[in-house]
Write a structure and sequence with these properties.
The complex is a heterodimer. By secondary structure, chain A is an all-alpha fold. Helices cover 71% and strands 0% of the residues of chain A. Chain A has one domain. Chain B is 41% helix and 18% strand. By secondary structure, chain B is an alpha/beta fold. Classes of the chains: A mainly alpha, B alpha/beta.
């Protein structure tokens, strides 16, 4: 939809800001409810993430001894701010992004990684051994999925010849064949990479509660933990929007957005309940031995296809 | 006006607390009977996520400390430490006869006594061991007392 909002409203109320926070909470609810239904449970009530968030904000915040205090307080704010900023150049809810410029794809992808970096720093900042193990795992996982995820998101960008998210979205709507059909490996890598980014099962080794309590965020209580949590919810919304606009034929109306993103959410919830947690070395092996190579092959094929298409098209009579 | 804002904020906080009790489970010397019942409470059959109850790994994230068994001399310091690691507001639920009185372990050479001798307890759930329904009922009683 080609409505442009005044930038202050777009930043604070809709589609960014408050509405984005609300939809982040709603997406978390949907995710938890779907996983619960897959496990034959009834699942949480619709206001559950909101109640969790308010409770965490109202709780005492313990700042443990041996941490750098300012870093401890600032990191959650920084993580949430990065997630909110990442939403600015993404076509949320099918509306035009607030800021759109050439190359915003790379900026958005790096803003999405800020969250993991902040979690890693937060874990390394405390003296707690569980936090440090969690931080190490989070950063190891970052290094394993980051490259394949980036390559997977570059596939449609290179095929359409632009690195501007809203132009890719428009281009994807005009394609006769959705990119999920022409670049299936890229779609899988992007979706599974997003699950790794959000530390959802089976990639939840960095916060495995049976081994390392709660991973990097073990020492965070109250407000800090709440901000990290809602930051992750917003990343879920932004990430799903990106993948849907790139691989599921883009969207130009809110209705189009809703059904495509919900289909993706259904798939991620199913994957979460299907697979058991991978060890950290299995995660790294999966990405570098299989994921990265397959995505790289696909990228080479796309580039070769792009360069050859002007010569081949006349032969095919196109 | 300020009073009104205060009451609204208080109501909101209480509502959030009642609807999102995250629990941590600690065994201070129990025979494991109650622990198995607590685990049974957390299975999909009873599905306590309906009420927002979630088992947390870290005491820093938890609101409710679910305690089982008498307190042994060795477990006493650990129990105190876990209790002190939890951020305010925090609540303690003692599950099983041993948590109430020391049960069959009362008077043993290595037992301090029941849980209330070490930390303040909000709700006692009797039974040896209590059924999952009883444990859920106990938590609901705790949440009801919060609303007042």
């Amino acid at each position: 939809m080609n409505i442009t909002f005044p930038s202050l409203i777009a930043l604070l109320l809709f589609p960014g800001g408050l509405f984005l926070l609300g939809s982040g909470l709603f997406f978390e609810y949907l995710d938890r409810k779907l996983v619960a239904r897959f496990q034959n449970r009834i699942g949480p009530r619709w206001f559950q993430p909101l109640a969790d968030f308010i409770k965490l904000l109202a709780k005492e915040e313990v700042i443990p001894a041996g941490t750098i205090k300012s870093l401890f307080i600032l990191l959650p704010i920084f993580a949430l701010a990065a997630a909110l900023t990442a939403a600015l150049s993404v076509p949320l809810f099918g509306f035009k992004p607030v800021f759109s410029y050439n190359g915003d794809l790379i900026v958005t992808l790096y803003l999405l990684s800020m969250m993991t970096l902040c979690i890693g720093l937060a874990g390394a900042n405390t003296e707690d051994r569980f936090s440090i193990v969690g931080a190490t795992r989070a950063l190891t996982q970052l290094f394993s999925y980051e490259a394949p995820f980036l390559l997977a998101m570059l596939g449609p960008a290179i095929a359409l010849g632009t690195w501007n998210i809203s132009l890719i979205n428009q281009g994807a709507t005009q394609q006769s064949l959705w990119f999920i059909v022409s670049q299936p490996i890229g779609f899988l890598a992007a979706l599974i990479g997003l699950m790794g980014k959000l530390e959802l099962p089976p990639f939840d080794a960095p916060e495995a509660e049976t081994e390392i309590v709660a991973g990097a965020l073990t020492e965070y209580s109250g407000r800090g933990f709440g901000l990290f949590k809602i930051g992750r919810d917003i990343e879920l919304v932004v990430g799903l929007t990106l993948i849907a606009s790139f691989y599921l034929g883009g969207f130009s109306t809110p209705l189009d957005f809703l059904w495509k993103v919900f289909v993706l959410l259904l798939i991620t919830a199913a994957l979460q309940s299907l697979f058991a947690r991978l060890r950290i070395d299995q995660t790294v092996g999966l990405w570098w031995r299989i994921g990265a190579i397959l995505v790289l092959c696909q990228l080479v094929l796309i580039i070769v296809g792009n360069t050859l298409s002007p010569f081949i098209a006349p032969l095919l009579g196109g | 006006m300020e009073n009104l804002a205060q009451t609204v904020m208080d109501k909101l906080k209480t509502w959030a607390r009642v609807n999102s009790p995250w629990a941590i489970h600690f065994n201070s010397g129990s025979c494991n009977g109650c622990d198995i019942e607590i685990l049974a409470t957390l299975t999909p059959r009873y599905d306590v996520e309906r009420f927002g109850i979630k088992l947390q790994g870290s005491p820093r994230h938890a609101d409710v400390l679910i305690c089982t068994g008498p307190v042994t001399l060795q477990a006493r310091d650990r129990l105190l430490r876990i209790y002190e690691q939890m951020p305010e507001p925090k609540f303690v639920v003692a599950v099983g006869s041993c948590g109430i009185s020391g049960g069959v372990f009362q008077g043993c050479y290595n037992v301090v006594g029941d849980i209330s001798e070490v930390i303040p307890v909000n709700v006692y759930i009797p039974g040896c061991p209590p059924r999952p329904e009883a444990i859920i009922h106990g938590i609901v009683e705790l949440l009801k007392s919060l609303q007042k």
